[in-house]
């Protein structure tokens, strides 16, 4: 049993269970992600992996739940603590002192997964409150894609899981942007080469 599993069994996780219970009874907007609920995915998720799924964060140091990151949305260094709780039907992550909480739960007897986010005024003075929504939107979108990749079957799924874990999640935001640009440029270049080759072949034929 790892340190995160031990923590989830500790009574300190009660506040996160209470948070989920309140959200279940509230008017929180839950978004369907059209992916089946995978309890093993949520119990295996670590604070470091969740932090790396934030597309605007560059990880400088990770010590369990506490991380030093550079936020490229704010262009500011931050020290954050990510505390998570997961069980067979729900998952909660609280990011302190940013005032952001991310949540997921099972829906339709596990046939679907729902996402939502919650926030309180951030305790860190240099973090504007309006950034909570931006963080949550991009973070949950990235989390959904990681959930999709981890649930994919076959050789293709295994390849993309390996790529995400060994390459993509280890990159900085700048490296990811450069990689995407190079991939798009290469695809366009290949399309142009095929188009020119086809045009030349048609010219010679007719």
Task: Explain what this protein looks like in three dimensions.
- It is a single chain.
- Helix content is 48%, strand content 24%.
- It has helices at 3-9, 14-25, 39-44, 47-52, 131-151, 154-166, 173-205, and strands spanning 31-32, 57-63, 66-71, 76-86, 90-96, 100-107, 112-119.
- Strand 5 (90-96) and strand 6 (100-107) form a beta hairpin.
- Helix 5 (131-151) crosses helix 6 (154-166).
- The protein has 2 domains: 3-156, Alpha-D-Glucose-1,6-Bisphosphate, Chain A, domain 4 (2-Layer Sandwich), CATH 3.30.530; 171-206.
- It is built from 7 helices and 7 strands; from the N terminus they run ααβααββββββααα.
- The radius of gyration is 21 Å and the shape is globular.
What brief labels describe this structure?
single chain; 7 strands; Alpha-D-Glucose-1,6-Bisphosphate, Chain A, domain 4; alpha+beta; about 210 residues; 7-stranded antiparallel beta sheet; 2 domains
Q: What does this entry show, briefly?
A:
The chain has 206 residues and is an alpha+beta fold. It has 7 helices and 7 strands; from the N terminus they run H-H-E-H-H-E-E-E-E-E-E-H-H-H. Strands 1-7-6-5-4-3-2 form a 7-stranded antiparallel beta sheet, with helices on both faces.
> What is the rounded Rg?
21 Å
Quick one: overall form?
Answer: globular
- Number of spatially distinct domains: 2
Number of helices: 7
CATH topology of the largest domain: Alpha-D-Glucose-1,6-Bisphosphate, Chain A, domain 4
CATH architecture of the largest domain: 2-Layer Sandwich
Q: Tell me roughly what share of residues is in helical segments.
A: 40-55%
Main β sheet profile: 7 strands, antiparallel
Instruction: List the helices and strands in order.
Output: HHEHHEEEEEEHHH
**Can you tell me the residue ranges where pLDDT is under 50 for at least 5 consecutive residues?**
1-11
Oligomer: single chain
């Amino acid at each position: 049993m790892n340190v995160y599993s031990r923590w989830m069994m500790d009574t300190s996780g009660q506040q996160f269970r209470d948070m989920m219970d309140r959200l279940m009874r509230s008017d929180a907007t839950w978004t369907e992600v059209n992916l089946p609920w995978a309890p093993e995915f949520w119990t295996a998720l670590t604070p470091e992996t969740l932090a790396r799924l934030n597309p605007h964060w560059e990880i400088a140091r990770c010590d369990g739940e506490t991380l030093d990151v550079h936020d490229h949305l704010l262009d500011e260094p931050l020290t954050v603590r990510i505390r998570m709780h997961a069980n067979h039907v729900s998952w909660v992550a609280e990011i302190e002192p940013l005032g952001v909480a991310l949540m997921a739960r099972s829906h339709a007897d596990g046939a679907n997964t729902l996402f939502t986010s919650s926030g309180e005024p951030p305790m860190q003075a240099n973090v504007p409150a309006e950034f909570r929504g931006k963080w949550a939107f991009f973070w949950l979108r990235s989390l959904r894609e990681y959930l999709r990749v981890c649930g994919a079957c076959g050789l293709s799924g295994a390849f993309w899981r390996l790529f995400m874990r060994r390459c993509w999640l280890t990159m900085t935001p700048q490296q990811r942007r450069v990689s995407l640009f190079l991939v798009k440029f290469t695809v366009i270049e290949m399309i142009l080469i095929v188009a020119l080759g086809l045009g030349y072949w048609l010219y010679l034929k007719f």
